[in-house]
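Task: fold both queries, return tokens.
Query 1:
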Amino acid sequence: MCRAIIGTEWWADLLEAHCDDGFATLAIEVPCCGGSTTLDALEYDWPCGFARFEIAVRNPDRLWFGDAELTALADRLGHPVKQVRARI
């Protein structure tokens, strides 16, 4: 992967193109160099997740959960977790 910066317009167009199929695959061709990769392999400025399910917390009393809390949750689920904040 060339590590070039990809504009948000490309990302928005990609979301629009896959709004009906929900990204049946994460495989993509990046516009910067034409290389093949997957959406989850790209580096994002903010945490981003691709998941089969989510645990949503509405109006939490704080911005982030601590590392120990995320580790405990991952241990209970038996799978790594990633914290992604979203404003709705």
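Query 1 returned. Query 2:
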Amino acid sequence: MDASHDGPHADHLGEIDRHTQLWVQWDGDHYEFVQRAPCEAPAEDGDACTLFDGHEPGHSWEMRDLPHG
């Protein structure tokens, strides 16, 4: 995962149910498993955001064309 913002980072691990996802969240060397509701904000092309509700810095479709590295 690219460190493109300050603060905690997260990666999706799986679905618990329709309204709950399991994520690993870290900040430096501190890791924790957290349950989050999905964002589901719709993009103009109809795809829902694949991040969790209340995430930063932007929706997943806003970051898919960013350069990595």
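Both queries returned. Flag for query 2: The chain has a mean pLDDT of 80.
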